[in-house]
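ok posting inputs for the asparagine job
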Amino acid sequence: MDEKLKSTLICSGVLKEARDFLLERGFVEILPLILTRLSDPLLETKYAKTKIYDKEYFLTTSMIFQKQILMNYFEKIFIVSPNIRIEKESPHHLVEFVQLDVEMRNVTKEKVMEFIEDLVIYIIRNLKEKYPQLIKVPVPEKPFKRISVKEMKEKYGNMLNLSQSIKEPYFLVDFLEEEREFYDREDPQRYGILLDYDLIYPFGFGEGLSGGEREYEYERIVDRIKRKGLPLSLFKEYLEYAKERKLKPSAGFGLGIERMVKYLLGLDHIRKTRIFVY
Ligand code: ASN
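and the output
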């Protein structure tokens, strides 16, 4: 079978297994937004700004803020969310990609990492059973190893070298404030260190997921935005929620769907995971 057709089949399988796992655990699925007025500042660009019926919109880079706002109403949610990011031309990046965006109220970094282990093991185990000829990667065992960003840099230099050197998924933790966004919660005991986690696939497949605990207190959010040198006016709607104490303690993650398919099928380029992306 052609690589793009295999990928399409496995992509459908990943989404089915992920949805089954989350719905069984009481998660509510939220529909994604493509046009938005509030999106992730991670690349500091508002793509394709456009006016529709006198209102300005741009394209979603991630639904991080919507996930946090939703925590005021639901305890556990997920979104199969298409994102646009002009980040880098590489075998690991797509301008248009889909992430499985998950958020949970009142959970800690450790709990979410355990949850991710269970989710990833569930998806791989079930897909290996259904498609034994297509999926050769082993079912990982938990707990996945944890490595700090500091240790990763000392021992491997960078994330891709780490990924090339390992034979099972790892969690990369203890990101520095300047490496991530203002909404990622700073460890109250360790200034400048964030309560984030990335899932790194082995055999050079690189980062597969990123997430963290979130800042939710108005004063802390304002401080973090200022430390980034960003204008508060960019986040007006979000800051209003925070001021009214409508953001709750939460943590979550985004799992890249195409990156997981690329890893499961051992593909050399992420374009091969999408039937209409060339
Ligand atoms: N989805 C990511 C998260 O939950 C955020 C992102 O895509 N930048 O942390």
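notes: The first helix runs from residue 3 to 24. The chain has eight helices and eleven strands.
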